[in-house]
Design brief:
By secondary structure, the protein is of the alpha+beta class. It has 3 helices and 4 strands. It has a 4-stranded mixed sheet, sandwiched between helices. A hairpin with a 6-residue loop joins strand 2 (33-37) and strand 3. The chain starts with a strand and ends with a helix.
Length: 109
Amino acid sequence: MKFYERLYTGKSIGNPRNAKRRLFFGVGCGDLYVISLARSADQLDIFSASLLKQRHFDKKTLVVVGIASDRQEAIGLVERMLEDAGRAGMEGDIRGYLQGEMERRRRKG
């Protein structure tokens, strides 16, 4: 599991570091929602973190770009991502925007 460096978090997520740790180890994360880069042709996936506990779920390739406390808050984060992508000139291409940001930071680092 990888986390986007500038992880989007909902206002109700008090400590993002703690939320990331909970997701990574799968402990006490049933109240969290995850926004990740989609594994299909879609741009993003939104799902309950409780799915991460399922044995068949492939966490190795998961790229988490946002964490929220409920589905409504997750949708609000996606709206923020859409606005950020639009400001960067990539209107409607959230996935491309986030991947581009990750690549730029990888080159800098």
